[in-house]
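To illustrate this point, we now present one chain and its tokenised fold:
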Amino acid sequence: IDACVGLINDGSLGPDDLMQWIKGPDFPTAGIIRGTKGIVDAYRTGRGKLRVRARTHFEEDDRGDVKIVVTELPYQVNKAKLLERIGELVKEKEIEGIRDLRDESDRDGMRMVIELKRDAMGQVVLNQLLQRSDLEVTFGVLNLAVVAGRPQVLNLKEILQHFIDHRRDVVTRRCTYELEKRQEREHLLEGYVIALDHIDEVVALIRASQTAQEARTALMGRFGLSEVQSQAILDMRLQRLTGLERDKILAELAEVRADIARLKAILANERLLLDLIIEELIAIRDKYGDARRTEIAVFDGDLSEQDLIPNEDVIVTLTSAGYIKRTVLTEYQSQKRGGSGKTGTTTKDEDFVIDLFASANHHHLLVFTSAGRVFTMRVWQLPEGSRYSKGKPIVNLISLEPGETVKTVLPLQEFSEGHYLLFATRRGIIKKTDVMAYSQIRVSGIKATVVDEGDDLVAVRLIEGDRDVMLTTRKGLAIRFKHEDARPLGRVSRGVTGVKLRGDDEVVSMDLLERDKQILTVTANGYGKRSHTEEYRITRRAGMGVFTIVTNARNGSVVGALQVDESDQIMLVTDGGTMIRFRVSEVRLAGRHTQGVRLVRLRDDEKVAGITRIADADDDAETTSLLTPDEAPDEGEAAIEDPPQDDVELDDGDPGDDD
């Protein structure tokens, strides 16, 4: 009402000005609106999202046990269903640290108690509840209304202006109606006054008449009265002929004439009409106004769950069966290359690790699926596990369709303009798309790319700066070209040819290269080597590539290749769940045609599944370099006597649009 009054008095006020009076929605069940951005969006544009959370506090009993007490719920949240949902989360172990739930509500108000275990962190448990249950919900605001027969989305000023216009119309109609009624009453009272002024003659005329119709006609002819006035005089009771009644009639006539003058003035003067609207609105406010129930909390003062999670470096592990976890990086101390490694994850016999990478808890995580869709979450939202745990199914974190599987995941520090995502598939197709196209991802995911039937995503990388693209194949070939060779395409597109494959060869990895670094190539049998980036000449995309490592019975096929620096460390994982972390400097620099050195000793039927780079990692273990300038080649490390011709690629590539 205050905002309406303000807008009536100053029509130039905008939505931002009106928000000095209208702070935000007020729900009957109270609760807390988290932040003002959704309110501002809704009032400025007509669309917005509000986060409404329950009111909670912590209590501690005599034994020192902590409990979360809920006294207000978000609007339309059912308390019984909420308790049931929290119980399910505890049973499924999605939330740890809750010992008991109970409802202590009575006539004095609502009270829901959540007892915590002794070792539980109350604020962390509360934030998990806010995230995974209806202790915090989203209200979508859509100010859609039918205006002049057409639907429109209105901002705050437009809503209030239409309401004021409606009040103007209502008050105008009411004043017009009241004016008509007062004028009718004035007409009757004027007839009464004429009759009272000539009462003796009126009585004689009525007595001389044979019928009522004759008397009415005589009155109309003698005194110039209307039919309505004449009939009212005939219907008038005799007590109205007294002097006291005459005074009442004259007083009422004066009052009626004053009302008529007031109503005519209101209808003739817009300002008087608006003043009347203001007067009536203020009367409603003073009679029915009460204190705000729903608190609007400033977001900056809120502690989100992310604020309570340290931004530690972690290793994320994904298995072929869809189990995922994050493990603190410090659990993997550096070893010397050639060791047996440590158990990095526990897998079933038919399951194996397909991807691992280093990231940080606060980074975004883009999850790409076989259907070409992408989901997003924060790394800290992944289940935390030790080196020995297998993690939890990723299907519990994202909504996959039947038959859809996770193919690759990409950590992303932030979304920013001018950067691109580069996609690569097993059949050598690449696609470059602006990263901002993925900045607004729904909970149900969005389409990320088009993947041909029978093809799979191998990798997705973020292009930063002037980087070259290197695709490595299973049979030991690699192609290097500038990323500008691939023109930017939209989200829902197929891409272009990145490398031409021979026979049953396929792409196993993609990396973006910087100058003055080395390429580390790793094979399935646990061997690898690093070579200078300059040994891989730049060609055009769609070529066949050059040899990067020998693939034979000793080495096995290529698992992956990535760019490394002397200060980096490498995390290597096998399909049996074993992980080993070692320094890049321990792997000998060698030419492209060498077989490499042993990186990990594998058990029977065990193969290397993936590798990841850990840049500038802290090393808590006491390790020394295995290599000296004069060290002899490791087992099988000697170069091939007659290596294949360097330029085995018969085609330097054609980046034409026919791809």
Remarks:
- The first strand starts at residue 32 and ends at 34.
